[in-house]
Design goal:
alpha+beta, 4-stranded antiparallel β-sheet, 14 helices, Triger factor/SurA peptide-binding fold, about 425 residues, Chitinase A, domain 3
């Protein structure tokens, strides 16, 4: 009888354990949401929650998971929409793209090189969960860039305007800033977005990693780099954000700041004094071909002179060649200009000269009462102004791409079928 009771007890115990195991498995595979024709499971949600908690220095408690679950589910829904659109556009994310992103995350997280997998495993997170997230970020950036890049043109006048603002700011404070941006696409959702911003602010004050929260929750263009905006000057971010920056000390995070587009959290990393526009200490030896043009010449006459200058200078492959042309009867103002400092030239001439390599000639251009072709015979020193112009160009492009990405995602949300099952 005792053996029979023991056998029955073991049978029941095995049956109960089987039921529990099946229940856990079934719960993991429960549907958290349906996005168009794709499913987000509770398992997917739990994996992303674990990743967020592990990389943000949050306590892995049931209360924390319950509080974060709705926000993380919304983020997963957005990820599905982004990936669906990227697939529609045949966007391909290569392994090298993912590896570069993981290397950047290692640096931001202060993880030794090559130890990211181990660091995540120690927190019970599989590296594949992070790779899935990174793949979505890269695919989305590529998709938006493919659609919008051809529509974005940054003119020289816009760059000149930014350079003038930089010069005006010389001697004033500059701020190295990171940002979390939560848009308010629908005024009816403002209270909900505000609450999310306040929760994120509270988490940063509790020790959560700002770059990790930015990567996971921010919808600004800087999300993929942990919200890092680099160095910004006073007034660059707008009145509301500028006022908040003035009150912050390095290491502090602002309270949520409402602007016309949504809520922002700003993290101030450092302060410094702005140096103004990058200078140029480049010296060049120049040679020119100069064809005079009458002050009252018609546009047709100027065009004819341009074509003549182009034809005359075409054979020249060096300054010696250009000098030979000058000896063959070119006008008196043609010839060597000697060594000059580029920053002492008129701005319009600087723009022509700075991009030229040694032995390279410019296209003909109108200057004063003549048409000119310039060639650089020698160059000494370094120039930071071209690099600064290119940085400004990239910054303006990224700002516009970021704004386009927000509009793009908003439209995808509005057109999507989303069924939340939790």
């Amino acid at each position: 009888m005792r053996k029979l009771l023991t056998c029955i007890a073991l049978t029941w115990a095995f049956t109960i354990l089987t039921w529990v195991g099946d229940a856990v498995a079934q719960n993991a595979q429960r549907i958290a949401a349906v996005v168009n024709d794709e499913v987000i499971s509770v398992h997917d949600l739990n994996n992303r929650l674990s990743l967020l908690i592990a990389t943000s220095n949050l306590e892995n408690r049931p209360e924390t998971r319950r509080r974060l679950a709705p926000e993380v589910l919304r983020m997963l829904i957005d990820d599905v929409l982004k990936l669906q659109e990227a697939k529609r556009l045949n966007v391909v994310v290569g392994r090298e793209d993912i590896d570069r992103a993981l290397d950047r995350i290692e640096v931001q997280s202060n993880v030794p090189q090559g130890k990211l997998r181990d660091a995540l495993a120690n927190s019970g997170v599989n590296l594949s969960t992070l790779i899935d997230q990174v793949e979505v970020e890269i695919a989305w950036v590529k998709a938006v860039t493919r659609l919008e890049r051809g529509r974005i043109e940054i003119g020289d006048d816009e760059i000149d305007f930014e350079l003038a603002r930089i010069q005006q700011n010389a001697g004033n404070p500059e701020f190295r800033v990171a940002e979390i941006f939560l848009p308010v696409d629908d005024p009816a959702n403002e209270a909900e977005v505000r609450q999310q911003a306040e929760r994120l602010a509270q988490q940063t004050r509790g020790g959560a990693s700002f770059p990790s929260l930015a990567r996971n929750f921010s919808q600004g263009a800087s999300a993929a780099v942990g919200g890092d905006l680099g160095w910004v000057r006073r007034g660059q971010l707008g009145v509301e954000l500028d006022a908040a920056l003035q009150r912050l000390k390095p290491g502090q995070v602002s309270a949520p700041i409402r602007t016309t587009s949504g809520f922002h959290l700003l993290a101030l990393r450092e302060r410094r004094v702005a140096e103004g526009v990058a200078g140029s200490n480049v010296k060049v030896t120049l040679h020119q071909l100069y064809l005079p043009v009458s002050p009252d010449a018609s546009s047709a006459d100027v065009s004819a002179r341009m074509e003549e200058a182009q034809k005359l200078s075409e054979p020249a492959r060096s300054c010696a060649d250009l000098q030979a042309l000058n000896r063959e009867g070119a006008p008196p103002l043609s010839g060597s200009l000697g060594e000059v400092e580029v920053n002492q030239l008129p701005p319009e001439i600087q723009k022509v000269v700075l991009p030229l390599e040694v032995g390279q000639k410019s296209a003909p251009f109108r200057s004063g009462n003549g048409v000119v072709v310039l060639m650089v015979c020698d160059r000494q020193g370094e120039d930071d102004s071209l690099r600064q112009r290119e940085m400004i160009r990239r910054t303006l492009e990224e700002e516009r791409l970021g704004a386009a990405a927000q509009r793009y995602l908003r439209d995808l949300r509005r057109a999507a079928f989303v069924d939340i099952r939790l």
